[in-house]
């Protein structure tokens, strides 16, 4: 039996993962800003589920949740940083306060939970950290520049963290989901009130009052949850886990385009070194 700590469990992938972990007989610290949305989990699994209020942008609350979790279960084996939301805006449309809140949740929120729970993992020389990113970090869709930036920051940090923790017996996995049938493009999507007309044919088409993809996404959150568990439980967890056929397709599409661009400018690239004496 392992003990999982999962942020953002009220809906979507976080909720599906919490349900799957508990159904497998594991302990789970399930968190959300509104714990009333976690009542069903607590009632169904009174001995193995601990529901805690958690706004990952509140450092004091993060520390308190970590202390309660470790006191109840004597340590956390798996941390899943899932809490986050989307922000749809052309780069020029982005509002400073919105962008700061986005980074506070999607990036610094994950950093805060890692800082709170990692010391105990280091002492025990075991553990797994799973950071939920997005395939958007790789292909940067129009209208989601700031959201993609938060996930790119999360991935960059995770890459260094993995190298730092690997000798200590702690794994780090970044999960890049494609489009899944969650509230991401509806209730959870934030956007500025004012749109700039010049972007109507690019970022404008992704605004939630226009985008018709909600409810038709190809990804199944329940299957994604099982995939994450399988990856974490593998003796050699992957650093990068793509979820969904669309994510896999986008991955290779971006890789091929970037390689072609780099090759095109190869001579200019290598011509910037000092000449040999």
3D structure, described in words:
With about 280 residues, the chain is α/β, with parallel strands linked by helices. It has a single domain (about 5-250), classed as Rossmann fold (3-Layer(aba) Sandwich). The protein has helices spanning about 10-25, 40-45, 60-75, 95-105, 110-125, 135-140, 145-165, 220-235, 245-265, 265-270; strands at about 5, 25-30, 50-55, 80, 85, 125-130, 170-175, 190, 240-245. The strands form 2 sheets. A 7-stranded parallel β-sheet has the order 3-2-1-4-6-7-9, with helices on both faces. A two-stranded parallel sheet has the order 5-8. Strand 2 (about 25-30), helix 2 and strand 3 (about 50-55) form a beta-alpha-beta unit. Helix 1 packs across helix 8 (about 220-235), helix 3 (about 60-75) packs parallel to helix 5 (about 110-125) and helix 4 packs parallel to helix 7 (about 145-165). It is globular. It starts with a strand and ends in a 7-residue tail after the last helix. The mean pLDDT is about 95.
């Amino acid at each position: 039996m392992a003990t999982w700590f999962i942020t953002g469990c009220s809906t979507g992938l976080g909720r599906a993962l919490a349900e799957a972990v508990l159904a497998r007989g594991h302990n789970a610290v399930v968190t959300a800003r509104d714990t009333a949305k976690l009542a069903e989990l607590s009632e169904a699994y009174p001995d193995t589920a601990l529901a805690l209020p958690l706004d990952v942008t509140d450092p004091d609350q993060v520390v308190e949740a970590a202390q309660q979790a470790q006191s109840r279960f004597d340590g956390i084996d798996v941390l899943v940083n899932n809490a986050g939301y989307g922000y749809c805006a052309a780069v020029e449309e982005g509002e400073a306060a919105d962008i700061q809140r986005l980074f506070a949740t999607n990036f610094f929120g994950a950093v805060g939970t890692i800082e709170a729970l990692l010391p105990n993992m280091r002492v025990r020389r075991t553990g797994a950290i799973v950071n939920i990113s997005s395939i958007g970090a790789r292909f940067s869709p129009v209208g989601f520049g700031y959201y993609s930036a938060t996930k790119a920051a999360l991935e960059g940090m995770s890459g260094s963290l993995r190298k730092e923790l690997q000798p200590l017996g702690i794994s780090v996995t970044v999960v890049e989901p494609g489009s899944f049938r969650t509230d991401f493009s509806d209730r959870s999507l934030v956007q500025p009130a004012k749109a700039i007309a010049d972007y109507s044919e690019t970022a404008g088409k992704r605004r939630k009052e226009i985008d018709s993809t909600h409810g038709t996404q190809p990804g199944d959150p329940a299957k994604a949850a099982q995939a994450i568990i399988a990856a974490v439980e593998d003796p050699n967890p992957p650093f990068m886990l793509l979820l969904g056929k669309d994510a896999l397709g986008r991955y290779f599409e971006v890789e091929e385009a970037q390689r072609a661009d780099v090759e095109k400018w190869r001579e200019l690239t290598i011509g910037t070194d000092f000449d040999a004496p």
